[in-house]
Amino acid sequence: MIAKTVTIQIPTGLEARPAAMLVQVASQFESIIYLENNSKKVNAKSIMGMMTLGLATGEPVTVIAEGIDEEKAIHDIEQYLGNDN
């Protein structure tokens, strides 16, 4: 298991479209992936879960991945969240 804290850099935060794109990124991996913020932990492959986080630009979120491709999963999700998309 790997966990890494990332600051959201997407200009609109994780509203509907960016959240859906994050789910697409996460769904490419076999690993179990969660995002955690303020004691709320959701499956990164679930659009409904991602929408409940309501993360804004500049907020920190912990990305947790466990599985065969966890390192690549953390890397790609960090790249997505940490870039101005």
Q: How is this fold's topology laid out?
A:
Blueprint: E1 2-7, H1 16-27, E2 32-37, E3 40-43, H2 47-53, E4 60-66, H3 70-82
Antiparallel strand pairs: 1-4, 2-3, 2-4
Task: Give a structural overview.
This protein has 85 residues and is of the alpha+beta class. The chain has one domain (2-82): Histidine-containing Protein, Chain: A (2-Layer Sandwich), CATH 3.30.1340. It has helices spanning 16-27, 47-53, 70-82, and strands spanning 2-7, 32-37, 40-43, 60-66. Strand 2 (32-37) and strand 3 (40-43) form a beta hairpin. It is globular.
Describe this structure in a few short sentences:
The protein has about 80 residues and is α+β, with helices and mostly antiparallel strands. The chain has 3 helices and 4 strands, in the order E-H-E-E-H-E-H. The model has no long low-confidence stretch (mean pLDDT about 95).
The chain-level structural class is alpha+beta
Number of self-contained structural domains: 1
CATH architecture: 2-Layer Sandwich
Q: Largest sheet, if any?
A: 4 strands, antiparallel
| CATH level-1 class | Alpha Beta
- Give the H and E element order: EHEEHEH
CATH superfamily: HPr-like
**Rounded Rg:** 11 Å
Q: Tell me the strand percentage band.
A: 25-35%
Number of helices: 3
Overall shape: it is: globular
The average pLDDT score comes to 94
Oligomer description:
single chain
User: Which percent range fits the helix content?
Assistant: 25-40%
As laid out across the biggest beta sheet, the strand order is: 1-4-2-3
What's the CATH topology name?
Histidine-containing Protein, Chain: A
Q: Could you give the distance between the termini?
A: 27 Å
The strand count comes to 4
Residue windows where pLDDT falls under 50 for at least 5 positions: none
